[in-house]
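TL;DR need structure tokens for one chain.
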Amino acid sequence: MPLLDRNGWKADAFARDPAADARIVPFAELDAALAARRAGAGVGVHLPNNIHPRGVMPWQDRLDLIAIAFPRFSDGRGFSLGRMLREQGYRGLLRASGWVIPDQFAFALHCGFDEVEIDEEHAARQPIEQWLHAAGLISESYQDTRDGFVSVFKQRRA
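>> reply
TL;DR here they are.
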């Protein structure tokens, strides 16, 4: 599946293959994957958007990647989950996986996501230029963001 960050398309260092050195596992298999982790191997988890971030807290310091599911572009729970994971101290890669559209790319970056994973069909319809352009359209924010924006309220107070 195509993967992009704020700089454009990128190679995926993680796979959903059990034999891969860096792999993404379903949430239900997380304990087993961490127990069987080989030295130097990366472990990521595919997190459904109906699991509260506190459910990941016992493992978050041992995870290299958390991929949050976005089952529909109209389902914004993943944005909240991403922000809450960052607020509870998760420092690894944070990936939005599924139905994120270019118009939502900047919001994903603001919430703390590092990258977005979409399917091939979606990538073919919406070229990278569209994603990168959309990421630069937001210049002000009503909240402080993970990528450095200071809220308009704090700006006004200053």
